[in-house]
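TA notes, week 10

Several of you asked for a full example with nothing omitted. So below is the full record: structure tokens for the whole chain, then the designed sequence directly under it. When grading your own attempts, check the secondary structure regions first.
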């Protein structure tokens, strides 16, 4: 069994038997990272600290938005161009069933990116520099795949061309879900993560085939959520916030939990 398949299978087992316990903007990505940090095993925590020291950072939240930030770094434009398609997946059918040749041509989507970077991070023969970069992408992409509009099926660029009214101003729906909706809580990322962690993790749905691709299941979950998040009349009112903010919170919690499980399995001793 390949390392990626072994990790994926173990991940599904861990998530199935674990007790009940979500692309976002910087706030959401930091929340996901902090939730994962709180649930790292001792071995994973030590290896994460070892890798982060290369960047003179100390927490997963410090690197959570790096894959977005490189778009503004002239020295990283080649890497940004190469990895930009890996932040999302465009389903080609409202059934939200993942068909790789159709939905992830040439492996250029977030579903394929996650196992790719798991393989690099878990391979101790790789350089620490390569493994740190893989860690950065994993932290970010596991957050991305849980943002529903990073896994939609409509022809609106993930809600970027779907305009809404939100808090008295025009905004696209993608931005609402990236940051606007979470911002209504008025919390910084540490306080937000603490609140979600105190609530515990909701039970996760049972795994579905194929068992060797949990990222596909996570993307399918996000895609299904997009069926219900387009507001009537293109207006985000308080009723919408009351209904959808708990959904966003749930995706953040699931992303944090799953990121922790991925890292705990990938960074076991040995």
């Amino acid at each position: 069994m390949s390392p990626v398949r072994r990790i994926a299978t173990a991940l599904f087992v861990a998530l199935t038997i674990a007790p009940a316990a979500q692309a976002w903007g910087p706030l959401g990505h930091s929340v996901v990272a902090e939730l994962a940090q709180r649930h790292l095993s001792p071995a994973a925590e030590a290896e994460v600290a070892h890798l982060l020291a290369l960047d003179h950072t100390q927490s997963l939240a410090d690197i959570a938005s790096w894959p977005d930030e490189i778009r503004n770094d002239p020295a990283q434009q080649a890497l940004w161009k190469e990895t930009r398609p890996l932040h999302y997946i465009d389903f080609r059918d409202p059934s939200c069933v993942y068909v790789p040749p159709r939905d992830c041509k040439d492996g250029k989507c977030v579903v394929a990116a996650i196992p790719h970077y798991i393989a690099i991070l878990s391979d101790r023969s790789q350089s620490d520099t390569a493994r740190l970069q893989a860690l950065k992408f994993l932290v970010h992409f596991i957050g991305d795949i849980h943002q529903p509009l990073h896994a939609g099926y409509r022809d609106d660029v993930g809600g970027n061309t779907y305009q809404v009214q939100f808090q008295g101003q025009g905004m696209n729906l993608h931005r609402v879900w990236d940051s606007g909706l979470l911002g209504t809580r008025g919390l910084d990322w540490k306080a937000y993560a603490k609140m979600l962690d105190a609530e515990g993790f909701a039970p996760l749905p049972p795994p579905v085939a194929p068992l060797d691709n949990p990222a596909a299941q996570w993307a399918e979950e996000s895609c299904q959520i997009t069926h219900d998040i387009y507001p009537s009349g293109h207006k985000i009112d308080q009723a919408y916030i009351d209904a959808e903010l708990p959904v966003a919170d749930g995706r953040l919690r699931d992303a944090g939990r799953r990121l922790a499980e991925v890292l705990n399995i990938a960074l076991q001793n040995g």
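The chain is about 55% helix and 5% strand. Use that as a sanity check on your answer.
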